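Running this now, will post back.
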Amino acid sequence: MCRWLVYSGTPVLLSDVLYRPVPSLIDQSLRSRMGVETTNGDGFGIGWYTDDIDTPAIVRDTGPAWNNRNLREISDHVRSPLFFAHIRASTGTAVQQTNCHPFRHGRWMWMHNGLIAGFDRLRRDLLLTVDPELFPHIEGTTDSETMFYLALTFGLDEDPPGAVARMAGLVERLGHQIGVEFPVQMTIAASNGERVWVFRYSSRRESRTLFYSTCVESLRALHPDVAWLHRLSADTRIVVSEPLGDLQGAWNELPESSYGVIPAQDGEMLAAFDVHGLTGPGIG
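Update: finished.
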């Protein structure tokens, strides 16, 4: 599988989040503690937004993140209020640049950890469902990119949670038709540059790990002597496949079958998620 990270909040250098924590996402590319694979060396990608450009920048490569000098160089010079970072462990598709995350279409970024079980048999039917106007923009061969373009087809611009639910529901329905018992395994991050949506869901209800950071004000109260916490805005959040660093009380597991919004909408960061639609009130 893969490991990924989302940062949203006070503009910081990418290196502050990618490299500085111990363990960091770069450490996880070589020694993941919670992933299906210990090593995630089948490529990496970073994407970020700036204040004056609507579309995100994307940098991707097929080599491992832990020894990439260009990634180190970029991360020491790029400052952003919102960025994605992803380290890849292929589930069977080719190790090539167009298969590395994050994926981009217009103002949207998307990245994924997990898989569509039976994707080799489902791929044709899934791709035929993609909006014909969007289809030419698909560059790679992964299930992750297919999920992205299905979500775009199902209204990601207007209703991100609903679009992702419809996408996952379609995968489950088609998977069940060919005898795949548990078609969907996913943690997903999507952003339009203004907000970030993160999802944790699987058909088996045993989803890959996903954690979000405790609110900055609470962390300041817990750790009043940690200087860098005082430089962050109250709405700063990080979402990760597995925790970074060792700051006590910093991380909370995203509940099974739920999604989160950053910055929070109507004071609620988390809500229940179901492939047949959204259910229940906010839970966070």
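The first helix runs from residue 14 to 18. More later if anyone needs it.
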